[in-house]
Amino acid sequence: MSYIKGVVTTKIKGFYYVASEGKTYECRLRGVLKRRDRKDNCIVGDIVEFGEDGAITAVHERSNMINRPLVANIDYLVIQFAAVDPKLDYERLNILMLNAYYYNIKPVVVINKVDLISPEELEEIKEKLEYLKALDIDLFFISTYNNIGIDRIKDYIKDKITAFGGPSGVGKSSILNLLQDNMELEVGETSKKLKRGKHTTKGTTLLPLDNGGFVIDTPGFSSIEHPPVEDVRRLISLFPEFEVEGSCKFADCIHINEPACRVKEAVERNEISRDRYEFFLRCYEKYKLERWN
Ligand SMILES: Nc1nc2c(ncn2[C@@H]2O[C@H](COP(=O)(O)OP(=O)(O)OP(=O)(O)O)[C@@H](O)[C@H]2O)c(=O)[nH]1
Ligand SMILES: [Zn+2]
Predict the structure, then answer these.
(1) How many Cβ atoms are within 10 Å of 107's Cβ, its own excluded?
(2) 188 Cα nearest atom in ligand 1
(3) How does pLDDT run across 188-199, given as a tens digit for each residue?
(4) Residues with C-beta less than 6 Å from any ligand 1 atom
(5) Looking at domain 232-290, which of 3.30.300.130, 1.10.10.10, 3.30.420.140, 1.10.40.50 is its CATH number?
């Protein structure tokens, strides 16, 4: 028997809908892959192999997985904000970046509503977000109103699985509507809509993009929740820019109060963004208080 490889786009009442080369197949999970105590035997985003009888016989290893919504193999977390209205909240942006790194998803930053700001204000935002360069995080300025930057985003997320995260009102439904013609999220209505109706019973769905790839229909990442970071070493690992040349005097340096700390020196020389370092300190205090003890 020959096998087909595809990606699970949604799961309804024990059926798995698997997309492969533009077609969707209704599949079932073969018995040996089912473990009754687990809800994540096979989930949306999984790359699977199935036979002509529609029986899924293999689930490939995942590159990442999030729980709410339950999705695997997300390529990009688009961290979306508006330039204004609501005000660009840099703290929340950092929290979303922390989540992306924690869950091993590549972060991308999108700033919408550039039609509402002056060139000077745009420059100001670019300056504030300068540190993204050192992190190799791509930054897009867009306007869903004036159709600025939308084609570049379309190109960027082609053939990938993309999740959108960001606060309410920044235009997430507006951009999802533009990414695919027959996507029907009501602007200003997403949150309400996703809480009721068919979405609740159906669960998460990967919406296919015209040019290949998928977006996740549920805005999974809130901008206020810190990820459940286990300890300080893990926290440090979520700041890739802290990997500086040379080693700190103490091998177990946590880059806070220690002398001869290469990270603090790099902050002093402006090689590491002070905003980011201060965000790190705030995270450290928060985790110490609420989680590590
Ligand atoms: N000026 C301007 N307004 C925009 C733009 N994009 C969206 N808006 C407006 O911003 C408001 C919020 O847009 P939504 O797409 O509903 O935002 P959302 O992020 O999905 O918000 P939630 O549904 O609350 O999560 C709406 O009134 C949109 O018309 C833009 O590029 N420029
Ligand atoms: Zn150090």
Answers:
(1) 21
(2) 16
(3) 444 443 334 444
(4) 112-113, 115-116, 143-145, 168-174, 187-188, 190-191
(5) 1.10.40.50
